[in-house]
Amino acid sequence: MKLLRTLPTRRLALLLAAVVGVAAAAAAITVTASGGGGSTPPAKPLARAVHDALAAPQPEGMTALIRFTNRLFPSGALLGNVGSALMSGASGRLWITNDGRGRLELQSNAGDVQVVWNRKHVTVYDASSNTVYEADLPKHGLKTGAAPSAGEIVKALTGLREHASISGAAPVDVAGRAAYRVTVSPKHDGGLLGSAQLAWDAARGVPLDVAILAQGSSSPVLELKVTGISFGPVATSTVAVAPPHGAKTVPLGAGARATHERKAAKAAVGLAATRAAAGFPVVAPSTLVGLPRRDVRAFGRGSRTVLVAYGRGLGGIVVVERRAGPRAGVGGMLSSLPKVSVNGLTAHELATQLGTALQWRRGGVEYLLAGSVPAAAAEAAARDLR
Questions:
Q1: Which of 83, 153, 291, 386 gives 311 a disulfide partner, CB atoms 3.0 to 4.6 angstroms apart?
Q2: What are the angstrom distances between the C-alpha of 292 and each of 6, 289, 312, 315, 341?
């Protein structure tokens, strides 16, 4: 894992699990993979296994075959982009240098997806829609000094165990490499999340398998797994692939700027202050499907955005309210999704194994409700917003 202190590998895996709900028909790839003979490493306490991974020698680079699995969306949940390698799972290749650059390629019959990044910037090109998504990466400030001691790791794990159940370091074989796997499960307020798993190379400390499981499921909802790997220098040209000319470009930095602007503007906190500042009728009942209202506040200048939070942890529900624009119907990112009825109004619903989001319009106000809850619970909560 020492590689992770200088390369954004874990960030990429999480990016593909969140930017991504991902890919289509996988094509076979050939890359020479080196590894062990399929043996598992000796048993170790978790703190020692983590310490040894963080202290492992940093590879000059790595080349890997990977498989991305996405069972997040039930059949028919998405009306568009179903052939994209960012929507239903695919195989591909991964290259990482030792100076913070990398490239991930997913293969699909509908067209490849290319993710290219360095320490400051990431681009995601989706050939199925001929679209490039661009974003600046936050400064992570990771230190590259000595690995934390086993005692420091034990202390950190003890603190984490107050909120989550953590398995030991299970010896496993991943892609012919001796590896350790740890499973982390929320102790309470976990919503639909069952567990998260991470397996890393016992000798190199490099992540080999990242998976998220829903409650009651033994198969990952999202997984990025190495199926073959070799270590060694990676040519600059391999990780410097530009998207094709003429592709539509979608900058993702606007959301970060909007967040910064909302923080810069003084927020109205509390129900009375929020209603006075919002400029439209705020709906915020004291409870929602049995969850107590925990927070309510208004952000932004001029036309305000109101956020109301119910419950705690991943099992909570968040409601976002804002004055609707002049266009007819419900717009936004959920507008092409399946329709459900909310108190006689049409709402668009995204239902996944890890949570549900609903979007609708009423009385000149747009509502977005989201939470790691089943669709039935989210729909009941939406109907309670009167």
A1: 291
A2: 42, 9, 9, 12, 24
- Is the model's pLDDT at 16 over the cut of 70? no
Residue 74 structural domain: 2-251
Instruction: Write out the E strands in 329-364.
Output: 339-342, 345-351, 356-362
Which position has the token pair 């509502």? Answer: 367
- 244 with 108, same domain? yes
**Residue 3 in this model has a pLDDT that exceeds 60:** no
What is the separation of C-alpha 367 from the centre of its chain, rounded to a whole number of angstroms?
23
Residues 107 and 19 occupy one common structural domain: yes
pLDDT digit string, tens, across residues 29-64? 223 333 445 689 999 999 999 999 999 988 999 999
Q: Which residue, of 206, 226, 251, is where some domain finishes?
A: 251
Question: 303 with 316: CB under 8 angstroms?
Answer: no
Whether the pLDDT of residue 106 is over 80: the answer is yes
Domain boundary, last residue among 226, 251, 276:
251
Q: How far apart are CA 77 and CA 90, in angstroms?
A: 19
Domain with residue 39: its CATH number is: 2.50.20.10
Tokens of 67: 């498989």
